[in-house]
Amino acid sequence: MSDSKKAPAVDQITLAPVVDDLCRGASGTTSTPGGRVTLPSREAVIKIVEDLRAVLFPGYFGTSDLHDESLHYFVGATLARAMRSLEEQIRRGVAFTERHDVDTCSHCFEAAQAVTKSFLGLLPEIRRLVHSDVEAAYEGDPALRSRDEAIFAYPGMFAVTNQRLAHALHVLGVPLIPRIITEYAHTLTGIDIHPGARIGEKLFIDHGTGVVVGETSIIGKNVRIYQGVTLGAKSFPLDEHGNPIKGIDRHPIVEDDVVIYAGATILGRITIGKGSSIGGNVWLMKSVPPGSRVTQAEASEQRFAFGAGI
Amino acid sequence: MSDSKKAPAVDQITLAPVVDDLCRGASGTTSTPGGRVTLPSREAVIKIVEDLRAVLFPGYFGTSDLHDESLHYFVGATLARAMRSLEEQIRRGVAFTERHDVDTCSHCFEAAQAVTKSFLGLLPEIRRLVHSDVEAAYEGDPALRSRDEAIFAYPGMFAVTNQRLAHALHVLGVPLIPRIITEYAHTLTGIDIHPGARIGEKLFIDHGTGVVVGETSIIGKNVRIYQGVTLGAKSFPLDEHGNPIKGIDRHPIVEDDVVIYAGATILGRITIGKGSSIGGNVWLMKSVPPGSRVTQAEASEQRFAFGAGI
Amino acid sequence: MSDSKKAPAVDQITLAPVVDDLCRGASGTTSTPGGRVTLPSREAVIKIVEDLRAVLFPGYFGTSDLHDESLHYFVGATLARAMRSLEEQIRRGVAFTERHDVDTCSHCFEAAQAVTKSFLGLLPEIRRLVHSDVEAAYEGDPALRSRDEAIFAYPGMFAVTNQRLAHALHVLGVPLIPRIITEYAHTLTGIDIHPGARIGEKLFIDHGTGVVVGETSIIGKNVRIYQGVTLGAKSFPLDEHGNPIKGIDRHPIVEDDVVIYAGATILGRITIGKGSSIGGNVWLMKSVPPGSRVTQAEASEQRFAFGAGI
Amino acid sequence: MSDSKKAPAVDQITLAPVVDDLCRGASGTTSTPGGRVTLPSREAVIKIVEDLRAVLFPGYFGTSDLHDESLHYFVGATLARAMRSLEEQIRRGVAFTERHDVDTCSHCFEAAQAVTKSFLGLLPEIRRLVHSDVEAAYEGDPALRSRDEAIFAYPGMFAVTNQRLAHALHVLGVPLIPRIITEYAHTLTGIDIHPGARIGEKLFIDHGTGVVVGETSIIGKNVRIYQGVTLGAKSFPLDEHGNPIKGIDRHPIVEDDVVIYAGATILGRITIGKGSSIGGNVWLMKSVPPGSRVTQAEASEQRFAFGAGI
Amino acid sequence: MSDSKKAPAVDQITLAPVVDDLCRGASGTTSTPGGRVTLPSREAVIKIVEDLRAVLFPGYFGTSDLHDESLHYFVGATLARAMRSLEEQIRRGVAFTERHDVDTCSHCFEAAQAVTKSFLGLLPEIRRLVHSDVEAAYEGDPALRSRDEAIFAYPGMFAVTNQRLAHALHVLGVPLIPRIITEYAHTLTGIDIHPGARIGEKLFIDHGTGVVVGETSIIGKNVRIYQGVTLGAKSFPLDEHGNPIKGIDRHPIVEDDVVIYAGATILGRITIGKGSSIGGNVWLMKSVPPGSRVTQAEASEQRFAFGAGI
Amino acid sequence: MSDSKKAPAVDQITLAPVVDDLCRGASGTTSTPGGRVTLPSREAVIKIVEDLRAVLFPGYFGTSDLHDESLHYFVGATLARAMRSLEEQIRRGVAFTERHDVDTCSHCFEAAQAVTKSFLGLLPEIRRLVHSDVEAAYEGDPALRSRDEAIFAYPGMFAVTNQRLAHALHVLGVPLIPRIITEYAHTLTGIDIHPGARIGEKLFIDHGTGVVVGETSIIGKNVRIYQGVTLGAKSFPLDEHGNPIKGIDRHPIVEDDVVIYAGATILGRITIGKGSSIGGNVWLMKSVPPGSRVTQAEASEQRFAFGAGI
User: Fold this and answer.
1) Cα–Cα distance for residue pair A174/A167, rounded to 1 Å
2) Which residues in chain C come in under a pLDDT of 70?
3) Which alpha helices (H) appear in chain C, and where do they start and end?
4) Within a 13 Å sphere around the CA of F188, how many CA atoms are in the beta-carbon half?
5) Tell me, what's the ipTM?
6) What burial letters (b/e) apply to B53-62, b meaning 16+ CB within 10 Å?
7) What's the alpha-carbon Rg for chain F, to the nearest Å?
């Protein structure tokens, strides 16, 4: 190798046509508007969620502790910060979705104010629900020795808390942000619950990796779900252009006191009756009455010589 | 939109009652003590684990390389730092769990010292085990071209290494921290192995997303597990208050040389005999003798017109 | 607790033998060479991928927007930076794999230059493919209200984009880095697609957690895959030393217009014929002709008293 | 020290009255308006300045180098980013200064646009000036072995470049931001040049710590200034309320080719004639004609016994 | 340059003796005790100071603004956090200075609690003083167009605020931390005011670089000081070991309404009488009565040929 | 303000000509070569200096403490890391200065190795010197209550330590990096000592802001220097092109036991005889014999009416 100068691999000869190609293509498929476009910030939304977790479980995710009378200050300051940031992010979300200029869209401004105020009012109820989830974990997991551990270490608690926050925003018509909140949990826990799903109190998702709960799912009270469970849709009707028709109820209804074991796949607008138990790895596409017990067909077994592989 | 001042959406009128509500609720469900409460720091625990990984695989996760005689310095400094931090985190964990003031609890202090010293002594054996896991990956994955790649890119290696470290702490009675260590791996890999599981040498988990190995599982030598496999519990007995009775053996025993394919769900204190092979997506709740081959019941097949959906 | 000095738990008496043991072991199993060894940097590779995502979807992951004429500058600068860094990382990857000194290996230098230049030329085609994936998501998910959401929030898009970039590098013979790129997606999405897999246009992976696509898989156009699906290998032949023989075609071929539902496990070099639909949780190890519809055997159902457990 | 719980030092009894006091005071002296007030971000302004430095000296503060044809991309992208951010910060500055709501003030919006466009047009001239400063350093410092070192390591270059950028904004009437830019240099270099100062080409400030150049100073071409030099004001007239009257010319005029040595203090609207040399530690409050040489009065010397102190 | 492996420059042959030498020396000069020694954290102290600045000037350094009723929450939460952290840092400072084990020293614990509580009670008075300093800046600097600019951009404000906080801790007997606070300001502003200096209301330091105010200085009300001014000590008496005797009053007393211009050096326990004005670059070691005007001896001037140098 | 889209202020019409202008100019004045140019990294150099400070003062800037036997590990690991990084940065510095391609320049490689090895050998002597500086501070500052405070809080210690490290590299012929090291101290302390200055043991610089010590200065043992002191050059001879002739001895020689008070300016290759004392604000350009006491001419004093200004 000589000591002379080496040109870098990629110079103008090679770079320019690729840049031109990528830029030309850009105006085709996707479609952001010409003005100032500001997507909601994923980092800001995550910070909001963490702040809300801190006020829902003070002492676990903040710097305060319970009997300290500075608690009011911490909760108040954290909540005020979160609400301000939320209002800003909602404004961005509305402007982006409706292709408005975020700096000048008064409609976006007013919508964000109204929604933020409504969301604030929902927090006490969300708090009640997430604390019921802690109870459900404590009752449902023999490996859990204290409620503390559920609160700060259980992925199911994390994902369900995120979904309950996202659902409130979803119901209020906020675009994009609910999805960012549930995808944040999805990334960290492998639990993917659509913001649209309606979930009763005391939901316990154990382990949770691979759980999918679709947009129009309804889950009753006191339900237990294990890893790899899908509450999904079957095929869906298409419109005249061949695109799926959006917004139809197409996911399961799970009534109170149901347990769904690992890997079960439940598809379509069917109802799992109250108190039923769905076995692992079951593939289920029709309703079952209350108190049902559904299991996979018998596995076949056979002895074979060691080392022969499968 | 007029140029006048706009009040922010959330002001004192709306904020104060929510803050009061959230603070009032705080003293109810959860229960942190009045004094200085310091939870173990997740960030500190993760740093400890990364330092330990660096000394278990010097040259892969540190700045040193093998034939460099500065290796002793690096290993020594990294290990000393990790042990100091671990002692501090254990002290916090004990104080939190037993509701002591971490600054003044001499019992916590002494317990942390004793446990840290014991843990240090276990490291060479842990090192032997994780290196056996590297061999297992090399032998078990045709896509793997060098041991290097297993060490620094395989999620299964990552998760099993974390569990072996967490298990040693679990056996020594350390609270909370083992769980933080395995949940860290769970978040990054989707592999959820409880710190309590007892695992023999040469475990290879391939791909791994969705794998769950429960608290009282026992896994023999030279076992291979694919993604989505559950070694879980069946229903569990409740005490007189309706809470699950903790600490009963309720997860499978997997003997040496077993292979469990993707998505298999194995539940309860059953035994998978030596050399058995469990097929994908099987739902298994009874023991199988050595050399068994278990597969799902035959899938049903039918031709249908293209485009008709399922 | 007396106010006297406390010795830390771990001192020289305990530390030295463990350090010696760990260092002694180091020269055994693993094998980094004596010179300057620099592994590719995971952080640098991730930054490259994010830069490439920004030029593949300008306006979504950068600071520019589409109709802004500064777009050329942004795309050009981002691409130039990414290509420089990629060249450096490839050089490291080659040097590490072939055990050369990265600072003096002219072969590594030249290989990195050649490959980087070739990769650049492939970007327009990659761009075409990932935009076809956006279309597939829009057509395939009723819950998706705009293409925007697919681009910046869908884990399937993320993972498939990463794989398409990694695949191009894999085909060009780049070591280690393709794996880092797909493992990055695996960590964030739970979707594990090997860089070697060959994938046609318009792939849509919905939810995605637990999806595994093996090294020699071939996927046609317009395929839809749900969470927990495995395209895996059956057992594999061993060489005379008991190690698996590398590089044999051992994963499925999925033809155009196939849908594979959640949790299906498809193993071996079989072919899923064009337009087939594979039901959830199916375990499939033989080829099916075009237009097939495969479902799990009927689940067994039975009513039982509420509360009895499973 | 007993093992009992300790209350933290600061509890509600002590905290509440202090908080009340601090909040009560807040509405007195200072005066931010009721709406959304957003100060310009110091971090954003610093980033803008660093981006501008990168385009003024490409190859020294960026990632590009000169003969690379990707230079246009880098300069264009960096400049576009800086201009966008500058426009935003100016908008904030105007809104804050005039007590408008930054989100709804269309005047602020338009002013920021106009000023940013004008500033952009001034950059080539600023570039010419800062490159003349490099030459001045090379000619004026025997310790400097290459122009490179002046560009990236000389505090004088740093401070003068910042002032030239700040001055352009100051002339355009931008509030607050020019001061942030020069204070940034002041913090890092100890050189405090007011944005209002008018400075000709080829200014060289050597070492520079403690240099102060006041608001209405005028500095000609080819001037050399050493550390600790002050170009300041004498006493100033007060208005009827006893406040200083703002905006009067009150700092020195330094003509071309002047050298001012370390620690000289030059006060008031006096003129230092072309080619003069002002000695170190001089205190000067009257004009001197061209070609003057001013030095401090003779120091008095005396021998004294060693060790007696001063 | 051959393609062979190169050994790194520094290997065990060269490294070991240097390490041994450095470690051997370590036990000589300096003297940290054997137990757990934790110095106060500079980062933590800086964070405390920034939090206190935020509550002293709410709306300027926090996220709140004045008329927002969430102000109480922000001030309360910020103050509570700062006091907790301050208590911890004081505990460390006491333990380090007195060579106690920070984890077990109950004396350190109690001292930190008492001091923190006292310090909290001083904050309203400190607040009054720093707001008087803002007024002084506004009255004293014709270049200042609003009080805002003084608060967030004037180095003199920054340094004096830090000193007032440090002084309160100094008076309470806190070791090390006051010095860290003033050195933080020294680093950023070049203004070095010892925590021990006693300073009346309405101090204005303009520009400030190079200002030094010694430990036993006393400064009255309404004093103005320019850059480069020293209030220092003359020679000091030594004890029988030749070490300086600590704690003697040895710095100037500056009475009310004094102005000291740039670069003046005032040494020893002398008094500058009320209303005096000390000219720039003066060297002064004896007291002057009220109303004095002191200036440097006349500078000598002479014309000389241009270009001849000095 | 209408709700319509607003174009950003800076678009292609305005941006393109400025970019072209800036790029065109780039090839003129400055001169980086065409190949891969990598300047030494300021961040890396700072990290090296901090690591060296940690091994020079173990227990103050590291995580270890003195009586801990893990000290050897910490010192060894820190030193090994610093030496590796230093070698890399020197290689970059040589390549940049000599306009070589850093990746292929074997001369740069070998030079960096040789110099790094030599520098390592100088560390014990540097250690001895900086510890002598601690003693000098303790003996010279009545405000200093422990050596600890000098080590971790005194800007003079910081700056002199940096200079002693930089000087060793300067003597070894390393380009650029010594300057980065001293400028780092200059930025943080306002003390600017050229790497070329030769400094004896026990130097104490108190406060230090504004101190300048020129390239060819020689400072003896046990010297004390206060803030604002300059050891500078007078005018310098020019070559036939009008550029200053580099490398001539042009700064003062300060013999042992000299004290130089605040603001003194000492210029030219003069000698301050052993044991002399130079008063504050003196302007001195001729040698003084041993034992001299030099002070500024008498200041003139006069009483004047309060409030009349100066």
Assistant:
1) 10
2) 1-13, 25-37, 61-69, 236, 242, 297-310
3) 12-26, 42-56, 71-97, 106-140, 147-153, 155-171, 177-189
4) 17
5) 0.85
6) bbbbbbbbbb
7) 24
Instruction: Please report how many Cα atoms fall inside a 13 Å half-sphere around the Cα of residue D134, on the Cβ side.
Output: 21
Task: Return the sign of the alpha-carbon dihedral for residues A176, A182, A187, A193.
Answer: negative
Residues of D in contact with E72 (CB under 8 A): 19-20, 23
Note whether F84 contacts B: Cβ–Cβ < 8 A.
yes
Which whole-number Å values give the CA distances from C260 to A280, B256, C159, C278, in the listed order? Answer: 19, 34, 17, 5
Shortest CA distance from A104: residue in chain D: D104
Residue type, E199: I
Distance CA B20, CA A79 (A): 11
Q: D19, E72 in Cβ contact below 8 A? A: yes
SS3 call for C183 = helix
Structure tokens at D73: 């991309």
Mean pLDDT for E46-63 is 85
Q: Which residue of B has its CA nearest to A190?
A: B190
The answer to whether A70 faces chain D, any CB pair under 8 Å, is yes
- Residue % of chain A over a pLDDT of 90: 55
- Residue listed under structure tokens 């013979």: C173
Residue C263 has its nearest CB partner, among A186, A194, A230, at A230
Mean pLDDT for chain B overall:
84
Sequence-distant (≥ 6) Cβ neighbours of residue C29 within 8 angstroms: B131, B134, B135, B147
Q: Tell me, what DSSP letter sits at residue A40? A: P
Q: How many pairs of residues across A and F have Cβ atoms under 8 Å apart? A: 45
Average pLDDT over residues A195-207: 97
pLDDT, tens digit, for every residue of B75-127? 888 998 899 899 999 999 998 888 887 777 888 989 999 999 999 999 999 99
N-terminal to C-terminal alpha carbon distance within chain B:
52
Joined tokens for residue D7: 């209350």
Give the rounded distance of the alpha carbon of B260 from its chain centre. 19
Output the CA–CA distances (angstroms, integers) from residue E6 to C105, D299, E3, F38, in the order listed. 11, 61, 9, 21
For C224, phi and psi rounded to 5 degrees? -120, 130
Mean pLDDT for chain D overall: 84
Dump pLDDT digits (tens) for C1-31: 333 444 555 555 677 888 888 877 554 433 4
User: Which pLDDT value is given to residue F146?
Assistant: 81
Contacting residues of B for A61, CB less than 8 Å apart: none
Structural domains of chain B ordered from first start: 30-189 (1.10.3130.10), 210-310 (2.160.10.10)
Render pLDDT for A261-289 as a digit per residue (tens, 0 to 9).
999 999 999 999 999 999 988 889 999 99
Contact A100 F6 (CB under 8 A): no
Q: Which of A57-66, E133-142, E155-164, F14-23 has the lowest mean pLDDT?
A: A57-66
Residue C141's SS3 state is coil
**Which pair of structure tokens corresponds to residue A85?**
């940031």
For A84, C159, E64, E154, F156, the CA distances from D91, given in Å and listed in that order, are: 20, 40, 20, 22, 42
Whole-angstrom Cα distance, residue E297 to residue E200?
31
Q: Reduce the DSSP state of residue C32 to 3 states and report it.
A: coil
| Cβ neighbours, 10 Å, residue C221 | 16
CA angle F240, F243, F248 (to 5 degrees): 95
- Interatomic CA distance for residues A159 and A193, integer angstroms: 8
**CA D159 to CA D191: how far, in whole Å?**
6
pLDDT confidence of residue F288: 96
The answer to whether F3 faces chain E, any CB pair under 8 Å, is no
Neighbours of F141 (CB within 10 A): 22
Q: What does the pLDDT read at residue B71?
A: 81
